[in-house]
Structures are given as structure tokens and as C-alpha cells.
Write a sequence for this structure.
């Protein structure tokens, strides 16, 4: 009986800590963001973005992996964002295999551009600071990072930034 109560108490403490430590995605303000005004023009060296920008007002760069649960949860929002002609969305596969990335793209019907090549992704990741996935960078059309979002992103969040 004592052993069962001890296990239940430990489980309760773990669940309580998990519940109370959860925070919503962190949107960093420009003055708090150490990526502010970092230029990612090298993105055009490893993607087709330069040929595809037309009437967009922002570039949305999303770091993701196929095994990342929050990445799976945000994929519908990213598809919705990519379908709006104000935004150009490009994904960067992080810490995952190209096969897993391609399977993810096929399974979830991802239509926006993704860079799956590890060397290309590492080349870009070396240019800015990030703390984990998912992370989303908002770039202006000069490829300057104007905002960083740590955690899942939504269409509403991107729309608010675009205002």
C-alpha cells in the first residue's frame, strides 16, 4: 500500500510540474531577438525562393522534423499560411533523414517548399540563433529576420506580425 501511494505521489508531482511549466509559443519582440536584422539572403543559394517571390510581403522559414509532435500539430497552419499569397513559406528539415522528411511531406500533403538536404540546412542554420524545433523565422523581402517564434506557429500569429 505504501509503495503504491509513493508511486502515485511521484506521478502527481511529475504531472503537476509538466502542467505548470508549459508555456505558449514564445514570440520574441525585435529588441529581444538576437536574430533581429540577421540577413538570410543565402537562402536563395540553396532553394528556389528567388525565382518564386512575386507579391509576397513576408517569408516564413520553419524549422521542423518528422518526429517532432509540435511540428506535426502546426503543419496544417503552415499549409494555410502558404496558401495565402502574402506569405512565402519554406521549411528546413532539422535533425532528421531526407527519407523521413519526404514521407512526412507526402503524409501531410505539404505543398510549400522544403529543404531536406542536411548540408544545405546546416549552411543556413549556422547563420542565426535558434533553440529548438519548431522555430519559425519571419523575414522581410530583403531576407532580414524581423521576428523569431519558438514553438508552434499559427496563421493568426503570422497575420498579426504582418500588420
Amino acid at each position: 500500500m505504501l509503495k503504491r501511494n509513493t508511486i502515485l505521489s511521484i506521478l502527481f508531482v511529475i504531472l503537476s510540474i509538466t502542467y505548470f511549466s508549459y508555456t505558449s509559443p514564445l514570440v520574441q519582440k525585435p529588441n529581444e531577438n538576437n536574430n533581429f536584422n540577421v540577413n538570410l539572403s543565402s537562402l536563395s543559394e540553396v532553394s528556389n525562393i528567388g525565382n518564386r517571390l512575386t507579391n509576397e510581403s513576408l517569408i516564413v522559414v520553419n524549422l521542423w522534423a518528422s518526429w517532432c509532435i509540435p511540428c506535426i500539430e502546426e503543419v496544417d497552419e503552415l499549409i494555410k499560411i502558404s496558401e495565402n499569397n502574402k506569405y512565402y513559406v519554406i521549411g528546413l528539415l532539422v535533425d532528421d533523414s531526407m527519407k523521413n522528411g519526404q514521407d512526412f511531406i507526402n503524409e501531410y500533403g505539404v505543398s510549400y517548399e522544403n529543404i531536406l538536404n542536411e548540408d544545405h540546412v546546416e549552411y543556413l542554420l549556422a547563420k542565426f540563433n535558434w533553440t529548438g524545433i519548431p522555430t519559425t523565422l519571419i523575414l522581410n523581402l530583403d531576407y532580414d529576420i524581423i521576428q523569431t517564434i519558438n514553438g508552434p506557429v499559427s496563421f493568426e500569429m503570422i497575420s498579426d506580425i504582418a500588420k
Summary: DSSP finds seven helices and six strands in the chain. Residues 26-162 form a domain with the Glutaredoxin fold (CATH 3.40.30.10).
